[in-house]
Amino acid sequence: MRLWIPPDGERRPDPEPLRTNEMLPVAIGLGLWAVALVLALVVGPRLRSDSAAWAWTCVAGLGIGLVLLVFALRRKA
pLDDT tens across 18-56, in order? Predict the structure, then answer.
């Protein structure tokens, strides 16, 4: 255990938390899911018979993104 704890028992101070912008990746993800939903609704039925599953996957991605957006907004405030 001596490898992890200095012999004098003193710890270094914790580093300051990094400042990040959570809004940008969440907004990009929501935009990509919205584009995928439009593509699944417009092009999907012409290509595959199970296009409804792809559309619901996009709706789920949008829902998760909206939840993350709420968390990011609350954290920012």
Answer: 888 888 999 999 999 999 999 988 887 787 777 788 889
Q: Which of 70-76's residues contact partners 24+ apart within 8 Å by CB, and which partners?
A: 71/22, 72/22, 72/23, 72/26, 73/23, 75/22, 76/22, 76/23
The answer to whether the Cα torsion of 37, 43, 45, 47 is positive or negative is: negative
Tokens of 5: 């704890």
Q: What Rg, from alpha-carbon coordinates, does the chain have?
A: 22
**pTM for the whole thing?**
0.71
Tell whether the torsion through CA atoms of 4, 9, 13 and 14 is positive or negative: positive
